[in-house]
Structure formats: C-alpha cells, structure tokens
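At this stage, I needed to go through a protein sequence along with its fold in token form, as given directly below:
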Amino acid sequence: DAFIRKNGALSEHTSASLTDQIASGLAYLHSNKVIHRDLKPGNLLLRRWQDDHGNAQLTVKISDFGVSANVKGEEVAKRSCVGTPWYLAPEVARGAPSSY
C-alpha cells in the first residue's frame, strides 16, 4: 500500500512478476506444510534494486509468520479461523477446512 502511494501504480509486467514471486513463496511454504494464515499487503516487503545492466528490479518477501502454522499432523490448524478479517478467504471465514 505505502509503496504504491509513494511510487504510483505498478505496470502490468511488474505486477505479474510480483504475483509470480508471491505464488512461488507460497508454493514453497505449502510444500513444507506451512500455512501463512495472514497474507495481506502489509505482510509483503518490497525491495528495489538494480540488476547488472542498471535496470530497476523489485523483489517481494513474505513476512510476519506470527500466526502461521506448521500443519504436520495438526489438522486443527487448517480449520481454525485466524488472520485479518478483510483478507480472509471466504471458506476460512465460514469455518470450512482450508487446504494448500
């Protein structure tokens, strides 16, 4: 939110790149049986840097694992409703079991 307020809207290419990075990060977490449970813009950190050709790049990092759950054998963690209400998946808000 703050990044966009300061720098303006992201290009389609940049948005796609950041979305791909977030999806890759979530895939890694899920492959290790970790559910973040509070993914929202405020928990995404952006780093601006320049590549070897001087082109501006953005890297996104997923942060704030305070309510995350390692669900190896903890099915209750997949059924509990935790997170910021405005960003909850509808099935989580309804109390339905979540999945990766």
Strands lie at 34-35, 44-50, 56-62, 69-70.
